[in-house]
Amino acid sequence: MKRYYLCGPTVYNYPHIGNLRPIVSFDLMIRAQRQLGEDVYFLHNITDIDDKIIAKAKQENKTEKEISSFYEAYYLNLFKLFSIEMPNKIVRVTDSLNDMYEYIQSLIEKGAAYQVNGNVYFDVLKFKDVYGKISNQKLANLISDSSNEVDKRSPYDFALWKDTTEGIKFQSPFGLGRPGWHTECSCFINKYFEGKQLDIHGGGIDLIFPHHENENIQHFAINRQDIAKDWIHFGTLNYKNQKMSKSIGNIIYAEEFLKNYSADTYKLLMLSTSYSKPINITDELLASLQKQINNIEAHFNKSQLEDIKYTLDKQIIDSILKNVSNLDFSLAFKQLNEQLKSPLNYGNAFFVFKVLGFKLVENKVSNDDKELYRKWNILKEQKQYDKADEIRNILKTKRLI
User: Fold this and answer.
1) Which of 197, 216, 278, 318 could disulfide-pair with 235, CB 3.0 to 4.6 Å?
2) Closest by Cα among 7, 23, 10 to 78
3) Domain range for 377
4) Looking at the 3D structure of the chain, how many domains does it have?
5) For residue 174, which phi and psi values (nearest 5 degrees)?
6) What is the pLDDT of residue 328?
7) Distances, alpha carbon 299 to alpha carbons 293, 342, 357, in Å
8) Contacts of 228 (CB under 8 A, 6+ apart)
9) Is residue 317 part of a domain?
10) Is 247 domain-assigned?
11) Is there a single domain that holds both residue 319 and residue 211?
12) pTM of the full predicted structure?
């Protein structure tokens, strides 16, 4: 069994389409691997307590639970809207506090962490030969924890448990407070995979340091091995030549995207570029991809109208899926476009789209549509072109031809 983990969202705001790149890309990869016979267990987390959630709760005069529950539900609903398969397990921080107490205590007992008053810190200098491995930097070149705690042994040490004066607090063996962000993921991975090494750990490129670096060193301290064999760090989505940012005002939220484009268009966008590279989104690019999706959908619907039975080429299909499973997205995208150049090969493309969860191949042409298509062909044969054109416009509007 392959063990996968993807860092999930901190649920305090609406996700934008850049936030969706890791989960959609993971979904494409896992769907392809499972079709090719791989057994994958996918663990995903929800950060439902954090400084950002606390700030949002204060801003809206609500509880942290009200904020996190609302945005978690919103995030999970996007799985349906974007046709993303649910992970094998989703774990929340607030449901796992006892697990985190035990994990932090284990780090203390191994001499990798220490408590000062109500705070618990990881002792980075004890692992200075390992720390920096994920970000490929030496400890001396890394920026220390930005917090201003004066009770730490080293400025590089990071909090596992925080004695906080703001927001919700939990009673723990270390005192009232809340867990540090960097500890939750390594704790979940250690528990649900029983200390075993992940095959793949994923997240946005911005998480390499300090989050993934800190995850890895905690796992190493307990299990004496890196937390993952391979790391997948996804590039940013840029709009108007800049990374999406509230301060710049160039964010495209997920539901806003779906008002103008289909979920399939977003998936095709992911396949069009290497997963690790930034994608510079333009309105022209999205319109072009939407047009391509519309054309593919029309071909698929027409194949149903004409009851076409395709002969599938398993070798070609497996080759495309193999590239998707290896995250060679741009190569798979090129192969798919090759299949779409000839009607004889449409079936191969349709099969791959179905495996990858594209909605366009879920369309079921009705008997009424088939009758309308038959009538259109009869009118053409009878050279009643005016009436035929009226039906043709209806068929095109429905993307049936």
Assistant:
1) 278
2) 23
3) 367-398
4) 3
5) -100, 0
6) 98
7) 10, 11, 17
8) 5, 197, 198, 199, 200, 201, 216
9) yes
10) no
11) no
12) 0.93
Q: How far apart are CA 339 and CA 286, in angstroms?
A: 21
For 99-121, give one letter per residue: b (16+ CB within 10 A) or e: bbbebbbbbbeeebbbbeeebbb
Instruction: Confirm whether 243 is domain-assigned.
Output: no
Give Rg (Cα) of the chain.
25
Structure-token pair, residue 350: 């349709």
Asked if residue 234 and residue 314 are part of one domain, the reply reads no
Task: With respect to residue 252, please indicate whether it lies within any of the assigned structural domains.
Answer: no
| Same domain? 43 vs 84 | yes
pLDDT in tens, 14-50: 999 999 999 999 999 999 999 999 999 999 999 999 9
Helix (H) or strand (E) run with residue 162 in it: strand 158-162
Q: Identity (one letter) of the amino acid at 65?
A: K
pLDDT surpasses 70 at 247: yes
Return the percentage of the chain with pLDDT > 70, whole number. Answer: 98
Ligand-binding annotation for 267, yes or no, is no
Number of H helices, E strands in the chain: 14, 13
**Residues 197, 199, 205, CA angle at the centre, nearest 5°?**
105
Structure tokens belonging to residue 45: 């987390």
* Longest alpha-carbon distance in the chain: 90
Q: Does 370 carry a binding-site annotation? A: no
From CA 43, how far away is CA 5, in angstroms rounded? 5
